[in-house]
Amino acid sequence: MIHALFCLVSRDLDRLIMTFAPVFMDLLRHVDEEYDMMLTWIKDGTIPDLEGIDHVRAHLQVSFEQGHLHANPRRAAELREIGSPFSCAGWVARVWPKMRMLVAVSSGPYAFVLPKVRFALGLTIAIRGRGYGATASVVAACYEDHLDTFVLQTEDVVEFLDAAAEETHQNILQPWNLEAGRQYQVVLTTRDSLWRYPLGDIIEIVGFDTNGGSPVFKYTGRKSSSIRLWYALISDSDLVADIQAISSEDIIQVHEFTVVVDDCELPTTVGYFVEGTLGAPHSLVACQIPLNK
Which end of the chain, N or C, is more open, meaning fewer C-beta atoms within 10 Å of its C-beta? Predict the structure, then answer.
């Protein structure tokens, strides 16, 4: 909430950098829920009494009052005229006219919010990914500004295991051994340690960079996130694609979801628990998605 307040009071933001795209939507939802109150805080130049900020409240108030972060009735009036975040398409571009891009991980399980992100940003603000990596290493960069396609680019040692192969040293593959169209698990050795370990991520090679020949790939899911039924293996990318297929204003605007195996009746299927805004009553019918995996 405090981050949102400091963002709103400034008209000159030119980029927003988030960890994941759903975090951006969470920020907008907080603003939407407290919009009138936040405009009052901006108008009066006060920091709200929020739980958990007592130890830094005085410092925040000083920061808010210094420079351009002061009581700003004009900015509050401008924001009130624009309306709350979900009141119009392109809200972000209207609130921050200089905004050029949102930088956030927007691939894999985080891709399901992209239609809502684009609605909020409008057509003039770019969405850029943050590359592909782990806590210990950056493994790849976004390929030609694609959100879900990456090119291997790292100073660490990155190796691979065929997704269907046993996890043994003998099955380790080097980047030049990879084949387009096949799926692999990423194995990482960081330059700062002697640890060599599989990330548990499954990628699919889609080609090779014409400038240097590095593998170009798409993330397809977590090895541990796949759901194995006796007749099918369902990856998390398949589960996300199904949610994207039903997420709309007419049915339900999905905010978050989780998946469980439903074996109450045969054949065994998967079921979704979904958090979101329901559509019109006439559209609330059972949605059955065929399992063609």
Answer: C
